[in-house]
Structure formats: C-alpha cells, structure tokens
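This entry is passed on directly below:
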Amino acid sequence: MITNDRQYRTFEVRAEPDGLTVEGYAAVFDAPEVMYEVDGVQYSEKIERGAFDQAQLSDVVMNYNHGGKPVARTKNGTLHLTVDDYGLRVHADLSSTAESRALYDEIKAGLIDKMSFAFIVGEESYDKSTRTRSIGKIKRVFDVAAVDFPAYESTAITARSFFSAEAEKERAEARAALDLAKAKYFYEGCR
C-alpha cells in the first residue's frame, strides 16, 4: 500500500557475478539532489549521515515497481540493508522464487537498472538560503523496489508538494516586502 506519508527515492542496482544477487545503494549521504525547479530556482534535498541510525529496517521487502510479491525480505535473510560511510547499502539474493530469478535476469540483462525505496521521514529541516531540505532521520523503510523507470514521478508528487510550498512562501515573502516598500514610499511621499 502506498500512502501520502511515504516518500520514494531512486538508486542504481546491478547484478553480481557470484550467483543470483544484486546490490546497490538506496541512499547516499550528504549529496544534495535537485528535486524541484520553478522559474529557474532549484530546490534540493539531501539525506544526512546518521539518518538511518534509528530507522526501522527489520521487516523490509524488495519487490518490483513497489508492488506485487516480494522477491527478497530482511526477515528471511534474503535482503540485507547495511549502513556504511557512503549510505544505505542493499544486497539481495534473488534465487528463491521464479519471480525473483526472472527479476535477476532482467537486471543482469540491463533491462532494469534502477531502484527506488519507500520511507517515512522522522526529522527534517529546510535551509532557505540554499533551498535545501535535509532529511535528518528516517522513521521506517518499507521497501526497496527494482523499477522500470525511477520513482521520480512518485518522488515529484511528494517533493513537489514540499518544495512548491517553500517556493510559494518565498514568493509571498517577496510580495509582502514589495507591498511594504510601496506603502512606505507612498507614506513618505504624502508627508
């Protein structure tokens, strides 16, 4: 089930030569990525080092396009998520089922080379000067998914609502400052 509080991000996946395993990084720390642009102004997001320190990672599934049957799972040991100095690393054994083996073949053939992950933000901040949203804590990771197309569209829905609100705040502040300047100019001219 995909809900409005879940957020999605993409990462690359590759087949490993040692059996039916795939690996990649679900997140890279401190690497701002442009998530939204309006009127030439870019809004970025980054996941801070330590964001996964208290995240619930005990029952995460890997699937295809965020749906369908799981092809790997942390609970049964076929999916491993580890946090290292670079980010959140994913390693999955896709030898368990016909679906997982078929997915492995598609990844190995280069037909699918991106992944997305679904999560809930626990703590975030926003730097108006750099227009960067920083994800400080992630509450829970629900899934990692091999996808036909990266989850930018899903990300854009969530990210655009956040970033468009920030952009609108900036425009409202600029309009208010302009109105105040006009009022001050008019008032001083009437003296």
User: Anything to note?
Assistant: Residues 173 and 179 are 10 Å apart (CA to CA). Residues 7-164 form one domain. Residues 152-190 form the longest helix (39 residues).
